[in-house]
Amino acid sequence: MRTLALDGRTGAAGDMICAALIDAGADPHVLDAVEAHLPVHYAVDETLKNGVRATTVDVLVDGNGADARGAAEHGSDREHHDDHDDHTHDHHDHTHDHDDHTHGHHDHTHDHHDHTHGHHAEGRGVHRSYPAVVELVESMGLAPEVESTAIDAFRLLGRAEAAVHGTDLSETAFHEVGADDAIADVVGAALLLADLEVDRVVTTPVAVGGGTVEMSHGVYPVPAPAVVEIGTRTALAFVGGPVDRELLTPTGAAILGAVADAVDAVPSMDVDAVGYGAGDATLDRRPNALRALVGESVDPRGDAKHTADADETGETPCGARTAETAEAATEHGRLVDDDIAVLKTTLDDVAPEVLGGLQESLAAVGARDVTVVPTTMKKSRPGHVVTVICKPPDAAAVAERLARETGTLGVRQTGATHRWIAERRFETATVVVDGESHEVSVKVASTTDGDPYDVSAEYDDAAAVAAATDLPTREVCRRAEGAVHDRLAGDDTE
To answer: Which among 196, 252, 429, 492 would be 20 to 30 A from 226, CA to CA?
Structure first.
């Protein structure tokens, strides 16, 4: 099995991942697809890191303009997802130690991506929302597996941002991560990975660094909040150190989380290519580079953990997507990815009338769904588990209303953070009985591209028609659903 093993002993970042993939044999000319859609170009160069030759990648903005980095030191991605507007956390100080190296190791040299043709793109360009980033990626005409990888990474970033700031994914506003250079890092990594044509990607535990990082909202411990959130949503293994500075950036974590399985050590493999992707800073006694090993290995997937989300919502792990499933998702559409909060409490002393009224009461403050399930509690007392689904910003209000209505002493928020839901719309079906027409609303569930996969008559409408016609309610439902089925089938043939 063709395997790419990433060894992040000094962390990882978007530019380091791109550089490591190029150094391991990926063709940098595949990055032309990004340059065709963004006003940037990639500068590929070489450097020495503590005696190790490594490749560097910088994203430069086209045209004239001041160096976007400024004189301040900053993180290796030049983006930092958590509003790192101050850019004082200096994982890479851009000292590049070029020592007149001439790219003897690779044919992809400065003639395609030249340092002299632009200025650093850090934070430059439009700062986009999550939906805008996805729309831009989808407009690039990428291969299905490349598009899927890039969107998976941005979804991880978006969920992390939403969790940190208490917002919905659809409302998430990327800051530096929505800028041109960060998009170039993520999409570039997806393109280069596809060019390597590996069957599997694994990553060993990634160093996150230590100390603190200064952001626009204040000073936070390393790893940064978004990196921690990505860690909770994937099986990526983090390790502190080996220096007190930020080593793993949100973009780096999201790319790894979207493509790699987590392993404890580099697997047994016959290595035929190795690459080093350099960060900007020079670390004491350690080469600041992400190492990439490519070769044939046995597939030990049974011992590995997929790094992307996989919970009771039924989401397919990002790292587990195959080209076939990615292409199918692109061609046939997907369900809608909906951020949620799940609240639970157990009750053993609440009147049935109160439980029966929770649907309406909790819906008034934002609950999307309420279920009440009988259970047995301590001392064998009969009780109930109340589970509520709501949007994250509504969780506090729903929890308070639940406590006030039931008198519970505590409400738990569980680990589920999102669900896949259908696009829903209503069609009106006409049911004719004894020459008279009756209307019944029918709910149509479909994927995001409008492909319907289920129809369901609204019970109240069907029951009203049944009462007026003496037909069984299920017969009214069958006729209404059949009418909509026939209508949708007719639309497909036109």
So the answer is: 196
The letter for the amino acid at 378 is K
pLDDT digits (tens, 9 = 90+) for 142-176: 999 999 999 999 988 888 888 887 887 777 666 54
Domain boundary pick from 377, 403, 420: 420
- Of 270, 303, 333, which residue sits at a domain end? 333
pTM of the predicted structure, to 2 decimals = 0.56
Q: Is 437 in the same domain as 391?
A: no
265/394 same-domain check? no
For the chain, the straight-line distance linking the first and the last C-alpha, in angstroms and rounded, comes to 46
Number of domains in the chain: 3
242-300 tens-digit pLDDT: 999 999 999 999 999 999 988 888 988 999 999 999 998 888 888 999 999 999 986 54
Distance CA 492, CA 396 (A): 45
Rounded-to-integer distance, Cα 102 and Cα 485, Å:
66
**Structural domain boundaries enclosing 426:** 422-493
